[in-house]
């Protein structure tokens, strides 16, 4: 025996209503503020530790704020005008640009060569990967300690090797013409593993059909590398170059620990000059102005790289 429900019982039971054309109507969704609850902690942390320091530092750059004085006066663009005429700013900027050039180029080329070597199927893959990437995991203090011993004028392995070859010892950290190159060599050994990892991941994701087709047509290994592999790595090379240039422009740690900007300021980058002016000379307002000028330079370089790579694509 079958029974029939009274008219409207299904609607009262909560079943979906049926439109006149026979199709069910979708339930109406209501917006809620649950998403904001999950985002709010991040926004608070971001605003407290990122947005507020940026705003505070920008305001400070227009004042004569100092660690030695309690009173702060608004000085307008005086700090920026002084920074443009400060020879120490230009010399430290030159050191930064020089370090960026001599470190970024080998960091890109050596990382690419290392990735190609590993990707070629060389025996002992795990050993090569570990040896290439392991230095990147070391903290900067350990790295600078290792290379300080290597650069020791009398007991260091570098000068001992030169002496064994019949050459004169070199003041790796005391010679103004050599000190920045010594820091660049340390940086390449320490950070090339990250770029190597990016290139290796890109190589492993490349399709093999083009390379196999070229090999069947009789193209050699070098021809396939220049005509097939490297063009497919153009986007990765642009990314690695952009990240490396930005990282080199912001150099501070290894130089400050290894040479403290010496000898005679020949290795002092912009960020170390900002640190010296702000926390040694107590001129926080002037240091903020220099740092924001350098920030503007980094933004210009980033935008120029972005437009260049987008145009190539």
Quick one: overall form? Answer: globular
CATH superfamily of one domain: MetI-like
Could you name the ranges where pLDDT drops below 50 across 5 or more consecutive residues? Answer: 5-15
**Mean of all residue-level pLDDT scores:** 86
| Largest sheet: number of strands, sense, barrel closure | none
CATH topology of one domain, which one?
MetI-like fold
Number of strands: 0
Architecture of one domain, CATH level 2?
Orthogonal Bundle
Subcellular location: Cell membrane
Membrane topology: Multi-pass membrane protein
Main location: membrane
Organism: Streptomyces plicatus
Write the layout of secondary structure elements.
Layout: H1 9-13, H2 34-60, H3 78-84, H4 87-119, H5 125-133, H6 140-150, H7 157-164, H8 179-205, H9 209-216, H10 221-232, H11 234-249, H12 253-258, H13 270-280, H14 284-312
Keywords summarizing the entry:
313 residues; mainly alpha; MetI-like fold; 67% helix; globular; cell membrane
Description:
Belongs to the binding-protein-dependent transport system permease family. With 313 residues, the protein is mostly helical. It has a domain of 165 residues: MetI-like fold. Helix content is 67%, strand content 0%. The chain contains 14 helices and no strands. The relative contact order is 0.13.
């Amino acid at each position: 025996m079958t029974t029939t429900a009274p008219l409207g019982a299904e609607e009262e039971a909560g079943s979906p209503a049926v439109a006149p054309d026979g199709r069910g109507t979708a339930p109406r969704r209501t917006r809620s503020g649950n998403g904001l609850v999950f985002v709010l902690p991040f926004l608070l942390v971001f605003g407290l530790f990122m947005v507020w320091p940026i705003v505070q530092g920008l305001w400070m750059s227009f004042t004569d704020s100092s660690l030695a004085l309690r009173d702060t006066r608004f000085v307008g663009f005086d700090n920026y005008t002084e920074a443009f005429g400060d020879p120490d700013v230009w010399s430290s900027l030159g050191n930064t640009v020089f370090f960026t050039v001599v470190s970024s180029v080998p960091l890109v080329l050596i990382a690419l060569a290392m990735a190609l070597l590993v990707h070629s199927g060389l025996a002992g893959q795990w050993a090569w990967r570990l040896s290439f990437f392991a230095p990147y995991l070391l903290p900067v203090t350990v790295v600078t300690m290792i290379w300080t011993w290597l650069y020791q004028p009398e007991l260091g392995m570098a000068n001992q090797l030169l002496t064994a070859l019949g050459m004169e010892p070199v003041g790796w950290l005391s010679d103004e013409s050599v000190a920045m190159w010594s820091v660049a060599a340390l940086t390449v050994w320490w950070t090339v593993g990250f770029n190597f990892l990016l290139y290796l991941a890109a190589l492993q994701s490349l399709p093999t059909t083009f390379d196999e087709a070229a090999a069947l047509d009789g193209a050699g290994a070098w021809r396939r590398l220049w005509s097939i592999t490297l063009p497919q790595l153009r986007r990765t090379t642009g990314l690695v170059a952009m990240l490396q240039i930005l990282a080199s422009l912001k150099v501070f740690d290894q130089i400050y620990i290894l040479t403290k900007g010496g000898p005679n300021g020949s290795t002092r980058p912009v960020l170390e000059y900002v640190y010296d002016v702000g926390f040694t000379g107590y001129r926080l307002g002037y240091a903020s102005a220099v740092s924001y000028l350098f920030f503007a330079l980094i933004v210009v370089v980033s935008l120029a790289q972005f437009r260049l790579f987008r145009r190539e694509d």
